[in-house]
Design goal:
Blueprint (H helix, E strand, L loop, with lengths): L9 H31 L6 H43 L6 H37 L7 H39 L6 H11 L2 H28 L7 H28 L1
Helix pairs in contact: 1-6, 2-3, 2-4, 3-4, 3-5, 3-6, 3-7, 4-6, 6-7
Length: 261
């Protein structure tokens, strides 16, 4: 009678899981290098490829900008009102504007903009392309026509949504606090300028930039390396989602440490 094979030990499973985890992140880094190399190649911006890139940028940004602009405006108005009323009740009204800017503009808007683009655009696009792509080596033309436009559109959508929503929130904050008068503009800009010192502004820009890299690169990396036969549709999407939001969480923690420690 054949002896049954002993199950792998915990140490072996941990070793295999660690190797697979490191290998997946190494492949993501390789994919990022490939995309940045394509971004520097003049052939990426030939006439026909420019038109394709422009279509992806518009298709992935315009619908998201409309929906996210409306949603962020409504949520911002509610949160601004909560902060203002709470500040007044505790006699801290002079800190209301600074709290609104720090909570909404510095923290919530970049994070939600990246999550919105990921859930609405890049994760579905990566999953769809992985399911219909044939296995095998990826040609340079396929990199130019399929992968790079999707990655660039994800990056651009995050930048655009975050920038427009930050400006919209600052306008709504002024209107909620002071109404339709121009006389408070000097004090308003002074407080906002004190919040956006050079260090905080740099951290905000870097956070949005790294969010956009994560949103644009991670969903397409699996499609690049594995194609349709890599894993099932559900597992593919869940794995990419977990990896993406884990990276976003790390970026957010790093930004909080940079702003407040």
């Amino acid at each position: 009678m054949n002896a049954q094979a002993s199950p792998p030990s915990l140490l072996q499973r941990l070793h295999h899981g660690t190797v697979a985890w490191l290998h997946s992140w190494w492949r993501l880094l390789q994919f990022a290098v490939v995309m940045f190399t394509l971004a520097l190649m003049p052939s990426t911006y030939s006439r026909d490829k420019r038109a394709l890139l422009a279509r992806h940028l518009v298709a992935d940004t315009a619908p998201n900008l409309a929906w996210y602009g409306v949603l962020s405006a409504l949520v911002s108005l509610v949160l601004i009102r909560i902060v203002v009323v709470t500040s007044l009740s505790y006699g801290l009204s002079r800190f209301a504007l600074e709290m609104v800017v720090r909570v909404l503009v510095l923290e919530l808007i970049p994070l939600t903009a990246a999550a919105f683009v990921a859930l609405r655009t890049t994760l579905p696009a990566g999953l769809e392309y992985a399911q219909r792509r044939a296995d095998g080596d990826v040609t340079l033309d396929e990199l130019h026509r399929e992968f790079f436009p999707r990655v660039a559109a994800g990056l651009f959508a995050v930048w655009m949504l975050a920038a427009v929503s930050c400006v919209l929130t600052l306008v709504l904050a002024y209107w909620s606090l002071y109404g339709f008068t121009p006389w408070a503009l000097a004090g308003y800009t002074r407080v906002v300028g004190q919040v956006f010192n050079p260090a905080v502004s740099l951290i905000l820009v870097l956070k949005i930039m790294f969010f956009s890299f994560a949103v644009g690169l991670i969903p397409m990396a699996s499609s690049f390396y594995f194609g349709a036969s890599y894993r099932s549709k559900v597992t593919h999407g869940l794995s990419d989602m977990v990896r993406l939001f884990a990276v976003m969480l790390l970026i957010e923690i790093a930004s909080l440490m940079g702003n407040y420690y």
